[in-house]
Automatic annotation (TrEMBL):
Coiled-coil region: none
GO molecular function: (3S)-3-hydroxyacyl-CoA dehydrogenase (NAD+) activity; NAD+ binding
UniProt name for this protein: Hydroxyacyl-coenzyme A dehydrogenase, mitochondrial
Subunit field text: Homodimer. Interacts with GLUD1; this interaction inhibits the activation of glutamate dehydrogenase 1 (GLUD1).
Keywords (A to Z) from UniProt: Acetylation, Differentiation, Fatty acid metabolism, Hydroxylation, Lipid metabolism, Mitochondrion, NAD, Oxidoreductase, Spermatogenesis, Transit peptide
Keyword Oxidoreductase belongs to the record: yes
Reaction(s) catalysed (UniProt annotation): (3S)-3-hydroxybutanoyl-CoA + NAD(+) = acetoacetyl-CoA + NADH + H(+); (3S)-hydroxyhexadecanoyl-CoA + NAD(+) = 3-oxohexadecanoyl-CoA + NADH + H(+); (3S)-hydroxydecanoyl-CoA + NAD(+) = 3-oxodecanoyl-CoA + NADH + H(+); a (3S)-3-hydroxyacyl-CoA + NAD(+) = a 3-oxoacyl-CoA + NADH + H(+)
Pathway: Lipid metabolism; fatty acid beta-oxidation
Gene Ontology biological process terms from the UniProt entry: cell differentiation; fatty acid beta-oxidation; spermatogenesis
Enzyme Commission code: 1.1.1.35
Entry keyword annotation includes DNA-binding: no
GO CC list: mitochondrial matrix
Amino acid sequence: MAFATSALVRSLSTSASRQAAIKHVTVIGGGLMGTGITQVAAQSGHNVTMCDVSDDIVQKGLARIQDSLKRVVKKKYKDDPTAGQKFFDSTMENIRIDTNVERVAASTDLVIEAIIENLDIKQKLFSSLDKVAPQHTIFASNTSSLPIKDIASTCERQDRFGGLHFFNPVPVMKLVEVVRFGATSNETFQSLTDFGQAVGKTTVSCKDTPGFIVNRLLVPYMMEAVRMLERGEASARDIDTAMKLGAGYPMGPFELCDYVGLDTTKFIVQGWHELDPDQPLFKPSELVNKLVAEGKLGMKSGEGFYSYKK
Ligand SMILES: CCCCCCCC(=O)CC(=O)SCCNC(=O)CCNC(=O)[C@H](O)C(C)(C)COP(=O)(O)OP(=O)(O)OC[C@H]1O[C@@H](n2cnc3c(N)ncnc32)[C@H](O)[C@@H]1OP(=O)(O)O
Ligand SMILES: NC(=O)C1=CN([C@@H]2O[C@H](COP(=O)(O)OP(=O)(O)OC[C@H]3O[C@@H](n4cnc5c(N)ncnc54)[C@H](O)[C@@H]3O)[C@@H](O)[C@H]2O)C=CC1
């Protein structure tokens, strides 16, 4: 069977007594996160369809997955290129691409949404999928900052809804935050946890609070670095160097902002500011907003705090 690998079999055996294991996954959004989630799900033997709004975007997403998978193969199979090629081919065989999300969701076990960080657009998407997806299908959002409860609010299947928050770059970062809100059932929470582990990640359990665990701590730190630059206290380069060499972070806060995407950064901070306008930690940054208005979104657009143009 093309899609069965040891990871999937393991996932089946651990969760079979609770409910049917997840075999077919639909990932909506073929950007930074959607491609990474598609890759790790396909690598672990799941049958994955990645959807986005245009052929061009899904094709580019597929090319990004191939590049990333080559890095994984080079590392994992450095002494056995034949096995590496087999792993590459079988992973790519597990991936389909599509632009019709409703058609795909009509026969899937799990939908993972990784589209832009906008509540209205996410709600509209899930509301339409709720009408076509089978009863058993679980919905999950990869949102960085929006309440899962709000994203789920337009759906009937409240009990089969939760958060699966992956980290960028997904093939490398080892954590998944599994988020439940009041209506998420125990079975759904367990299935999402099993899925996170089946794709090779360590899972932590989170309540539906702003930023869950990681971003509630990371976002204030990153925004304080931006405010430090705005106050003229140090340059972006020096702040990055200081945090890498003095605090042991793999990337400085400005490198990380560019890596995450300044549009996503702006959406997160703006959303939290609207929820809690008096909280100084969530104050939007004029500098970030200006860069976004200029189309400087970070690495993905070739320029952000730094330039990546060759
Ligand atoms: C203010 C609001 C903002 C809030 C934002 C919130 C966003 C969210 O919701 C949550 C998030 O994801 S936050 C971001 C979390 N990620 C990080 O902190 C990444 C920090 N950076 C790193 O870990 C390394 O620089 C990194 C791993 C990226 C690169 O490492 P290096 O600098 O050492 O570079 P390489 O030598 O190229 O890579 C190291 C190993 O990793 C492999 N690799 C890297 N990228 C890959 C990718 N995309 N696919 C597959 N493999 C990849 C690479 O091959 C290399 O492997 P080895 O050579 O064997 O070590
Ligand atoms: N960038 C990061 O480091 C992280 C982002 N996230 C979250 O993941 C989600 C996606 O973020 P990224 O991948 O960075 O964004 P991105 O901008 O790289 O990709 C978003 C993709 O969604 C597509 N899209 C937009 N509306 C759509 C729709 N209605 N149907 C199908 N596709 C649609 C866009 O065409 C785009 O390709 C966001 O909720 C973000 O907060 C979570 C963890 C880390």
